[in-house]
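seq as requested:
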Amino acid sequence: MKYPHINFYTGDWLKDPNLTMCSPLARGVWIDIICAMHENGRMGVLSGTLEQLARITRCSVNELRQALTELKKNNAADITKNEEIIIIINRRMQREYEANQKNKERVKKYREKCKEIKVITTTSTSGYHNQSQDFFNEFEAQYPLIDHQAEFQKCYDYYLSKNTKIKDWAAIYRIWLTKDFPKTMKPQPYKKPIELPPDSECVPPEELHQKISQIRKDLKKKEDGEE
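struct tokens:
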């Protein structure tokens, strides 16, 4: 990414004690090095031969050698040499670059994770649940008017679309049925059937009427005989 400008803080530049101890020549070379680092991706590192760096900083080789000696001596920059290659490091710019790279990596991982979740959710919701028939037998006894295969699929798709990890689908489905269905389709509380008394204590209504009728006839006859 090409940055059109540089964040140059004049206060930091003027108050840096290590840089203040350097000569105007060293400070002028250093600002050119910072600009070159900025143009080179803001990594905080610039490397090359003495001649190449002199052309980049627009000074002579002797002036560059003197400036680098001061910058290193006053600890204004980290300067190392590997054979003919000189490596110059701006510590602050390097820290900012590394922090920026770590932030980009976190954002990348987060976006990849979001894509994975989206793919898993899409695949799961378009698929079909794998609950066995034994799973539905418990609910069919309480909810005989419901197509549990189709209804559980709705429940299954709903929670997967919310990216919810479910461990106990039976408990979730029971809550789903309790909340989402009208009273007419909810299971009724179990009522123990009425137990009739033994046959000797239970008289059918027809027989009872016959007995009452017979008693009345007997009473009528008795009354007629007495008269």
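Confidence is low (pLDDT under 50) at residues 119-127.
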